[in-house]
Amino acid sequence: MKKRVLVLHYSQTGQLTNVLENMIAPLKSAKNIEVVMTKIESTENFSFPWSFFKFFDAFPETVYLDGPRNKSLDIANIDFDLIIIGYQPWFLSPSMPMSSFMKSDEAKIILKDKPVITVIGCRNMWIEAQKTMKELIEKCDSRLIDNVVLTDQSGPLESFVTTPRWMLTGKKDAFYGLSPAGINAQDIKKSSRFGERILEKLNANAEKKDEPMLTNLGAVKADDRFVFSEKIAKRSFRIWGKLIRLFGKRGAIARRPIVVIYVAFLFTLIITVVPINMMVQTLLRRVFKEKNDKILIEIEKPSGR
């Protein structure tokens, strides 16, 4: 009897789709596994690259998980043995199409009592988004058994330039000595190792247990430079997001001046506070290394390194 694996994903740039296709290649080649790869489609067109205002105007609703409805997937009546969810963090939260799906009645039917593996493709900050995703998974009465995270090849500081350039122009190549934006091609190719392990575990009926499948494969490695920074940024997003939402719905002209003020605030923060914060955290990590290590271990669960 064949086992069914559902791969749900939303990828605005196509990068995450590429990751998932490499990851599930071993499953698709197995005769005893049926793979259903389904793209989540919003009723709103989130075109890529973004325009400046549409990009920054999206963050309040993203942070408050208030996105537009999605098109029906028409798979609620199919029983799956394992579900893989690929998503992008937007503003330290799951993307609007993904959070809209996770909050839907359709998700509650599809995911109920199923083991779930999340796959994240992002710049470098994913911890707060995954916290939110865990909560959404639990509300669907499903269980997270693994998490895979692939991050951009550019460093933390240079990605403040390379990632916005990619998002707003569609250009991700190296320029002026900066690394290319996006996940390294070799890292994407190597993601097939996760599919090989999943196939092995499915053949052993391991999906029926509440145990991770992908331990010791380098599935996820949390960076302690971002733990505290993400908490501060998420709190800031919620404060500014609440303020901007007072001036109307997404796309409202009245929101634009507030969005411009927020962008100016964010840019000032990046060139002043962020470098100082990173230096301070470097010192604190050395002082509180043991405590930080315990925090990272908790963040990296269930897959670990």
Description of the structure:
This protein is α/β, with parallel strands linked by helices and 305 residues long. It has one domain (3-224): 3-Layer(aba) Sandwich (Rossmann fold). It is 48% helix and 13% strand. The protein contains 12 helices and 7 strands. It has helices at 15-28, 52-57, 59-63, 96-102, 105-111, 127-139, 159-169, 185-190, 192-203, 224-245, 256-287, 289-300; strands spanning 3-9, 33-39, 82-87, 89-90, 93-94, 115-122, 143-151. A 5-stranded parallel β-sheet has the order 2-1-3-6-7, with helices on both faces. α1 (15-28) packs parallel to α9. The longest helix has 32 residues, at 256-287. It is globular and about 60 Å long. The mean pLDDT is 91.
Please identify, by name, the CATH architecture.
Answer: 3-Layer(aba) Sandwich
Q: Largest beta sheet, briefly?
A: 5 strands, parallel
Give the SSE order as H and E letters: EHEHHEEEHHEHEHHHHHH
Helix content: 40-55%
Number of domains: 1
pLDDT < 50 runs, ≥5 residues: none
Structural class: alpha/beta
CATH superfamily name? Flavodoxin domain
The CATH class designation is Alpha Beta
Primary descriptors:
Rossmann fold, five-stranded parallel β-sheet, alpha/beta, globular, two-stranded antiparallel ribbon, 305 residues
